[in-house]
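Technical note accompanying the year-one report. For the benefit of new consortium partners, we illustrate the data format agreed upon in the data management plan: each record pairs a sequence with a structure-token string. No post-processing was applied to the example shown here.
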Amino acid sequence: MPSPLLLPLLTASAVLLISGAAKVRDPASVDQAFTSMHVPAALDRPFLRRLLPWAEIALGAWLLLASGAALALVGVLTLGLFLAYLVLVVLAVRRPEPADCGCFGAVGDSEVTMATVWRNVLLVLTAALVVVAGLRDVSVIRTGLEGSAWGWVAASVLTTAVAVLVVWRPTDTHATTAANAATAQPELDEDGDFVPTPAPRAAVLDEHGTPVLLNTAVLSS
């Protein structure tokens, strides 16, 4: 029986290839994500925005073709990339304004939620197992380790969890709130005057393209 370490290896490769291809098809989502996720200025460069999708595709292909020390190296690079993504989504989910990661272009969810955080935690674990696969000489083109049935069960659970979190879409609470606000009747006091209501919790872009909470924008104007 092939080693169960092949499963996280194939999972990491598929995630990178899908993510890179989606970003290549929708480069605007990359620009939006860099702004929305507050990528550090040192890394927010036009050439890095254009390079990122191709780097993901290259890593995904390398995972399928490499073995031994080369696979361990690409596993470390993948682990570093997934750790960077994890840090960005953790910081984004702690901010008051919503953030759009554009992780898979038009595929899967784009708004950063706790599900995004857990997805990236699992991807970090997957990349760590890729490093182990390289060190133990397990690869797609050459399998050097036999695995147990329980190992395959554990690897299958990890792969399934990653797949579910990649394609899962959260309920669009912002759209629901906006629709309810559009159809709601205005509230009147005893004298028939309108009762002021707070601005909805949503974000808009200012003239510099920076996300700003709507109620903050209303107060500042």
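Partners are asked to follow this layout when depositing records. Confidence is low (pLDDT under 50) at residues 173-183.
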